[in-house]
Each structure stands twice: as structure tokens, then as C-alpha cells.
Amino acid sequence: MLQKDPCQKQACEIQKCLQANNYMESKCQAVIQELRKCCARHPKGRSLVCSGFEKEEEEKLALKPTSK
């Protein structure tokens, strides 16, 4: 049986917020932060809706200069 995505509710809240605020991301920072918190609570790969944040983190780490 397919399990429900643990962060689906937060992802839906972001969509509602964006639609209500004419897609101005700056007006939805609180709900975006809630999704980030949800993603942080679950193992990597557990939530499909978190995959964008996981990819973002990987890219940040790849660009981070290494210390000598």
C-alpha cells in the first residue's frame, strides 16, 4: 500500500498561500518554513515534496569551497 507523503499537507498550504497572494513568495515565508521543518524531520527520500529542498541542499554543498 502506498504511504501518504508526510509533508503533503504543508506543500498544499504553500500552494494555497501562493494562489491567495498572487504568487508572491515573500508573502508565504511562514508556510514555506513549515515545509522546511517537516522535511527536516523525515529521512532524505521519504517525502517526494521535499525533493526540491534536498536538491537545493546538495547544490549548496557542492558549491561550498573546501578548506585547505
From TrEMBL:
InterPro entries: CMC4, Cys_alpha_HP_mot_SF. Keywords: Disulfide bond, Mitochondrion. It is found in: Mitochondrion. It comes from the Eukaryota. It holds the Pfam family CMC4. The keyword Mitochondrion applies. The keyword Mitochondrion applies. SUPFAM superfamilies: Cysteine alpha-hairpin motif (SSF47072). Belongs to the CMC4 family. This is Cx9C motif-containing protein 4. It comes from Pipistrellus nathusii.
